[in-house]
Amino acid sequence: MIEINVDKREKTYFILLVIVSVLLIVPVIFMLPVLLPLSLLVLLGQGLLIGHVKGNGVRVSEVQFPEIYKIVVKQSEQLGLPDIPKVYIMESGGVLNAFATRFLGFNYVLLYSELVEVSYDKGRDVMEFVIGHELGHIKRNHINKKLWTFPAQWMPFLAQAYSRACENTCDNIGFSLNQSGAEQGILVLAVGPKLAKKINAVAFYKQQYTETGFWVWLSEKLAYHPHLSKRVRLEKDTFVIGGGLREKEEAVLEKEMEPVVNIEDYSKYLPKN
Ligand SMILES: [Zn+2]
pTM to 2 decimals? Predict the structure, then answer.
């Protein structure tokens, strides 16, 4: 089994979610006449989604995309999952995405075909990172934890903060399973597969310290995923965000702060008298 670097904030925000949910228990009881039909609608929606995926998606197995199935089986073992989740691939109209969900006790992973195509182009690494990230949500039981703290999931800022911490943990898990795939995977999400080959990963990572301000802050605080510049994991300068292993980050930032072009180099272009 691999070591799992859980973002420390995930545990803190989960405790806060539990506390807020308990505090909201009385209003929830009063709202049961509204909440019960609402939960039935959510259940119905989830059931229809799973039905749609099962009927239209392509189920990954030993005979269907076996190379992807092998990754799922291997990583499920590495993460110590009790069961191998059901994995489906679906056409996505160009959207690069994947998600894990749970319905009536079964775990599902849905991979959008565009992301699978990109991963095939880039080789096994990105695929391993993407699948590892989604299996991470199952390993950490994120779907159930969000469900059972549903009263607090309405709280703006807190629900998003917990979700972002969960995403960090799953990026860490994906990174542990494939470091090269983690770097490339996030860069693909940022600029698409072609430009990802050209992007300066360190400069993009450093952007989180230079592109700052109120609106940047607010847009992230209301988002369920961290900003992509914060999600970049640099393959050659290993560190794990939020996991207490940041010592190498200093070295990365200092290295990048050195001037790229030496001013003295310009002297040869100056007119000589
Ligand atoms: Zn995720």
Answer: 0.83
